[in-house]
Amino acid sequence: MHPPAHSSGESLQVTTPAQAGALLDFAYGARLLEQFLDPATSSHAARALNEPANRVAYHVRKLVDCGLLRVAGHQGKRALYVTAARTFHVPRTLVQLDEPLTVIGPALREVTTAYAHAVLDWQTRQGHPGPGNEDLTLHLSGSAPDPGDAIGPFAPALRLRTVHLSPRQYRAAQDALNGILDQLEAEATAEDARASTFVLMTFKGQLHLT
Fold this sequence. Notes:
single chain; alpha+beta; Arc Repressor Mutant, subunit A; three-stranded mixed beta sheet; 6 helices; about 35% helix; globular; disordered N terminus
């Protein structure tokens, strides 16, 4: 078992590479820990994340072993877990910040792979490509059809925009986008609801796709 990280109230100082690696795992690090801000079972987290229960339970055990999660009690025979802190401090020496893809690369690969499969699935459901039609249609910025007009449900969409904002506008845009997602998450689930993913990335600068 890994040594516990040093905790002080609401914050926690990460002390080992294993703890840093577990925390920065985009799939089952902070994303999973957020399900335990209040005591919860691993099965509850699995339902919230729409993930297989055995997979989530495996990663919960890893977070417990690292000292990032702790047992807060029991609900019948099931353990209730809670985060060791709400804020984590990771020493720069434990993170390869000079090689950012070591941190964000796995998440971006998963996002792009899932998105590509969603596009192929949607095309299949729409009957594309049809016999003798192997065209790939690209719409330039401003000329793409409204997603609401797309045939069939859950049409995948990708939007890239570079805009000039003041610090105040930038923060307001982030808050507004987060507010939309929070509202959707809080709404009652409809009978025809399906797991849907929105990836929100904002950063200062612009893309150089060359």
